[in-house]
Amino acid sequence: MFKGGFIQNLPKIYGLYTGGFLVFILMMAIAEQAGVTAKTIGILFVAFTVAIYALIGYLSRTVQVDAYYLAGRQVPTVFNGMATAADWMSGASFVALAGGVYFGGYSYMAFLVGWTGGYVLVSTLLAPYLRKFGCYTVPDFIGTRYGGNGVRFCAVLVLVLASFTYVTAQINATGTIAARALGIPFEAGVWVGLVSILLCSMLGGMRAVTWTQVAQYIVLIVAYLIPVFWISNKIGAGVFPHLMLGDEVARITQLEGQFGLVKNSAADVKAAGVPGGLKSIAVAHAGVGAGGMAVWKYISLAICMMVGTASLPHILMRYFTTPSVKSARKSVAWSLFFIFLLYSSAPMLATLSKISLMDPNLPTGIIGKSIADVQSIEWVKQWSSQKQVFIADFNGDGILQLNEWFMRTGVVVLATPEVAGLPYVISGLVAAGGMAAAMSTADGLVLAISNALSHDVYYNMIDPKADVRKRLIVARVLLIVVGAAGAYIASMRITSILGAVAWAFDFAMSGLFFPLVLGVWWKRATREGAIAGMLSGLAAGTAYLIYVYPKFMGNPAWLGIDHLRFGLIGAPVCLVVMVVVSLMTKAPDAATQRMVDEVRVPSGKAILGRAH
Amino acid sequence: MSNKEKHWQKTKGHMIMTLCLWAFFSMVIFLFGYEINGMSFLGYPLAYYMTAQGSLLAFVIIIFWFANKQEKIDEEFGFGEKED
Fold first, then answer.
1. Is A236 within a domain?
2. Cβ–Cβ of B34/A299 closer than 8 Å?
3. What domain count does chain B have?
4. Which residue, A37, A67, A146, A256, shows the most beta carbons closer than 10 Å to its own?
5. Cα distance from A116 to chain B (closest Cα, Å)?
6. Does the beta-carbon distance from B44 to A245 stay under 8 Å?
7. Does any domain span residue B60?
8. Which chain B positions have a beta carbon within 8 Å of A593's beta carbon?
């Protein structure tokens, strides 16, 4: 049934895979009706999908350098788009994004604009040129364009700092989901998550990660969209929620007026014993804050996330794998399309979740009902016992007010199917989707770090004479070491100290954005300028982070630039220093200038050969 | 001006045009978030719609448009890639 090579048959293979996954969901639904317990279904969902990814990882094993680092440069445009989307959408995007919108409203949605708008920068400024260059890793570009191991090492430094900040959060998420689905302690869950991640990446490097990420994208998007459409239809909000929830948004605004948006004082929350991390609704769903500071807060966050997106190595390296420069460009467009499918659904899920809980006319509504009644609802009981939801009767009237209902952000995605009365099979599906999202991002990050260490540090700096076999062994050993380090830190549960995922974007934009962009767009940029720019940008950004973060020095933020936005300090410093130092030093030699000219046209050979 | 220089001039112009559109949908409209939220689109308040869906969709369209037009520029100057 399969004529021709693997690449020609991709649509058929993934078509069958998707069909098989849907059949699996149906079988689980039948099993649920036949009396199989919820717990077994949860285990089956996670175990079955992880086993499939491991199988794909095994089938994609390779002993070739360009397959290990670049998936053989033959990933078709649309499939690379799916793989990038899975690479991009982390466990946090999947589990926490809708919750963030639910609690944060308009100002939180600056993340949505930031995490999508950045792809315009990727496609116009970077992806096609880096693809033409033919590099294996992002530091490979910096090292060749500017010349020398010093500048290469600085790029590795920024890459490791940004990606490692991100990867511990991802391994943490795989651990949480694995622990919940398999019923094991969190620490064990982290190591199960790590083994699953390594199974997907170790034998085949980029090639294996590419084909598992495509499979993971399919699982995660199915798992996200089914509940959104189902709930919307079930409560009669509209057949196609994205276009039809206008009335529900208006109704929420009306109910907010009726119930009142009250911000609880920290003392009250503490006195009532609300578990840490749980929040109540205190921000308008669709309202926009007035005044210059609100505007600046929104736009500055969007800028940081956009520029950070365009500097994150694990995303940029996905575009090294396409067959041509123009397919790299198109591939960015497809990536964003696949990301859009999930990101545009998150606010819809937040809306549906909120109206299900708030509207007294719906059978699922709990706000304004008696607390005794609410506490006897099955899902409330279950999620309370896990400290995911909490009720605090501040005014002692026995009626649940809007500000007396507390939830953890992840609950919006994880519990809404249950709240809306969907069968448990959907909750199992959501767990598998969250696992897919966290694993795919962790895979991309661990590979980005270990590839930079093996290709740039080991092969280019330490042992340029190493043969292929030795290089691939080193690459795999480093993969395990990096993954284990991430899992170890995640298992210590100190992620609150390590800070937010947003930091990865700020680190990357502080150190890498301008050296990458100017490397293509400004021939006069010199090695000395790049080194000075990367180091000073990173130092300025990090210093400001330490200055402003509440758990470090905790000084008041300057012009509203808080710890989520420290890239706004680092990146301009990087730009100014890089330009000034470049102009003060000797212009790059003729060979480098010619190289930049070559990068700017799509046709012709790549600067770096297939195997280098 | 050589063929390569002309190609780069046009590529730069196209990049700047694309980034202007990007800036409009990512920043300019949100400068007026409060003002435009009174208007409505598909029944949603306008600023809410743009941040939840509208700008995201605009970015997707912008990148497809950018990629197609850049391909035409490359072909015009004889730098298009042959299919391999």
1. yes
2. no
3. 1
4. A146
5. 6
6. yes
7. yes
8. none
Render pLDDT for A305-330 as a digit per residue (tens, 0 to 9): 999 999 999 999 999 999 999 999 99
Per-residue model confidence as pLDDT tens digits over A273-302: 888 778 889 888 998 888 889 999 999 999
Q: Is A536 helix (H, G, I), strand (E, B) or coil?
A: helix
Nearest to B18 among A120, A250, A302 (CB): A120
3 state SS for A367-426: CCCEHHHHHCCHHHHHHHHCCCEEECCCCCCCECCHHHEEECCCHHHHHHHHHCCCCHHH
- The whole-number average pLDDT for the span A37-54 is 89
The neighbouring-strand residues paired with A411 are none
Question: What is the per-residue DSSP string for A231-295?
Answer: HHHHTTS-SSHHHH-HHHHHHHHHHHHHH---PPPHHHHHHTTPPTT-B---S-SS----SHHHH
* Residue B47 forms contact with A (CB below 8 Å): yes
Looking at this protein, which amino acid is placed at residue B42?
L
Is the residue at B46 inside a domain? Answer: yes
Q: Which ranges in B1-84 belong to alpha helices (H)?
A: 3-23, 29-31, 33-36, 46-49, 55-76
Q: Which member of A112, A120, A325 has the closest CB to residue B52?
A: A112
Q: Which residues of B fall within a CB distance of 8 Å from A109?
A: 48, 51-52
Identify any residues that bridge with B41 across adjacent strands, giving them in sequence order: B44
Mean pLDDT of the A328-339 span? 95
Q: What is the pLDDT of residue A497?
A: 47
Nearest Cα of chain B lies from the Cα of A42 at a distance, in angstroms, of: 31
**Any domain includes A604:** no
Contact B40 A329 (CB under 8 A): no
Assigned token pair, B18:
């694309």
Chain B neighbors of A75, CB-CB under 8 A: none
**Domain carrying residue B21:** 12-76
> For residue A268, is it within any domain?
yes
The answer to whether the Cβ–Cβ distance between B44 and A112 falls below 8 Å is no
User: What mean pLDDT comes out for the span A327-344?
Assistant: 95
ipTM of predicted assembly, 2 dp: 0.96
Most confident of A306-310, A403-407, A549-553: A306-310
CA A22 to chain centre: 25
Distance from CA of B63 to the nearest CA of A (A): 5
Domain annotation covers residue B41 = yes
- State the nearest Cα–Cα gap between B7 and chain A, in angstroms: 8
- Distance between B69 CA and the closest CA of chain A, angstroms: 11
d(CA B38, CA B31): 14
pLDDT interval class at A496 (50, 70, 90): low
* Rg from Cα positions in chain B: 18
Predicted pLDDT at A274: 85
In angstroms, rounded to a whole number, what is the distance separating the alpha carbons of residues A153 and A358? 54
Residue A558 to residues A53, A111, A547, A576, A612: CA-CA distances in angstroms? Answer: 46, 21, 10, 20, 46
Q: How many domains does the structure of chain A reveal?
A: 1
Task: Kindly tell me if the per-residue pLDDT of A612 is higher than 80.
Answer: no
Residue A238: pLDDT over 60? yes
Kindly state whether residue A366 falls inside one of the protein's structural domains: yes
Residue A362 lies in domain: 10-377+379-393+395-599
Q: What is the pTM of this model?
A: 0.93
Return the sign of the alpha-carbon dihedral for residues A217, A516, A595, A149.
negative
CA A238 – CA A244 distance, rounded (Å): 5
Cα separation, A555 vs B81, in Å, equals: 54
Contact between B59 and A119 using a beta-carbon 8 Å cutoff? yes
CATH number assigned to the domain comprising residue A447: 1.20.1730.10
> Measured between beta carbons, which residues in chain B are less than 8 angstroms from residue A247?
43
A581 neighbors A518 (Cβ within 8 angstroms): no
Kindly determine whether residue B52 and residue A344, on different chains, have CB atoms separated by under 8 Å.
Answer: yes
The yes-or-no verdict on residue A2 having pLDDT over 60 is no
